[in-house]
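Appendix B, Record 12. Input sequence as logged:
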Amino acid sequence: MCGILGWNKRNAKFSDNEINLFKDSLELLDSRGPDHTGFVMNYDTLIGHKRLKILDITDKSNQPYSKIKGKTLVYNGEIYNYRELENLYIKDSNFYKKETLSDTQVVYECLLKFKENSLNLFDGMFAFAWHDEDQNSILIARDCLGQKPLYFYHDENETLYSSELSSILAIKKNLQLCRNNFSKYLKNGYYPGENTPFKKVYKLLPGHYLNIQNGKLRKIKYWQNIPLKDSLSDEFEEEKVTNIFIEKFLRSCEKTYKADVPVGIFLSGGIDSSLVYKGYKNLGINIQTFTVGFKDNDYDESKKAKKLIANLSEYNELIIDSNDVFDGLEYISSLIDEPHGDPGFINAFLLTKFAKEKITVGLTGDGADELFGGYETFHAQSIYRKIKFTPTFGFKLLNKIVNSLPESDGYMNNVFKLKRFLNGADKKGLLCYINWLGCENNLLLSKLFSKDKMRKYILSNKLDYDVLKNCDLDDEEILKDDFDALLNFYQKNFLPGFVCQHTDRASMMNSLEVRSPFLNKEIIEFANSLNKKYKYKNNQTKYILRRALEKLGGSSELVSRKKMGFTMPLARWQRLYFSEKIKKIPQKIEECTEGMLDHKKVDALIKDHLTGKKNHYQIIHSMMIFISWRERNINYNFE
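Logged structural output:
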């Protein structure tokens, strides 16, 4: 796991000041790779790398990596199948030495032989840049589901790319903030798809690569694997499908365990991480586990996680309270390169900080929900399909009734779920689903904005449609509303933009690599070939995972456990402990959005929340994060 940075100019030499600026910008990635700093340059290109040593911890795999003059690789991630690729493609290389082989060398050799055709050979998580001076080209690529981040800026004069936005901002001083993208952040709690806070700075979409040759940029999709409604596995018996999954999953667990540093599991007590733990136990691997818990019992899963562990010497528990969250929030806000309003980010940061004392690689259950249908929305989807032809006035009446009900701050309470359901139930296809996940409904959100132009952008559904298009969903996909369409939405939007983003950032702040056995290609392709009945059956989500967990020794209580989520009693704590800080939001958010938000409307929203009349914890948290980020980026203005 590492950090990468590159700067290419069009036939222009770098000044000494620019070289020093680049080196300073590279240091902003230090927590991603504190073990080694690498830098190379030629006439028109600067390439930098920060290394966290995981595989082959000698200096032989330091980067930027080059064996042939003019061909240079900077790479962030892990390729789990590098030994298989070694046997197939690398043994005839002039540089092959089995005893020193690393995944870095395998990536280099494959790119040398196959260029962009290498991308579909790689099974793992990665973001890299391949510089070929002979061709005057740069190939920049990101893994298929976006586990590793990659930002880029490109114009007629230069190209910049980086693992984090902060390094690009340190070099590019004349960027402008984007109003529409801010509204997408406020609606979703993160910048979805290719969006960032800035115009002209983008995230490279998962499963895509950039080819930049002679200054001209092409963006190309190299990987597409979507859930299949009609699949061959429909004819298989449940027992057979379960056994096939277990075989593939155990193989994936073996691959993701490979490291030359200590490895552990982040255990929540839910289905996904418990299956990861049972997988390693069935492989005969003893492994340390790390769990975070809360003093508020209705949010605490640590006791459930502890029940799973036979040998308590392998169990490490961190119990946190509101003070820990407040301190963690302050620290994260001082470092985060892009606003991210997920409260679970704080949990992940505190847990990885705790675990770093013993391990350098952590294993999670990330991706299981998006691949096998694990969220509450999959229950909602089955209801939605039955009532979607209800007249609009019917939904409006229900909304009026539900909005009059008292709110609770309990996790996923019934009023909360019913309100979320009605947020999108009168919309079609993925426009319904994106509103189920949004922090607030479009009507309330629009009222916070001071200008008619932004209010119309939100109320016309243009905001939601733009988000979906920015996540590489086409018009045909957007109109679909079946089970597989919801899976596709999660895999292209929520998984890379929300889940992988916070996992990567939180762990990298603590110089710790995180992997998931669910996000290897073999598991992704298997999951997307499965018929719905193996994912959602008898009102149970992740059906096939539950059957697999049962076979691997999970108790009946564990197998039937409902999803909890990696969250905290934030609404409660906001009212009890953070109210003074929250009361300052209206004036601050109006100032830092240059009047885009109306402080009076924001103040009314906050009063409703603090008095318990409404529950607006998500959008309030997103505003707090944005304010902290904006105060560190005060020199940039909205367009």
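The chain has a mean pLDDT of 91.
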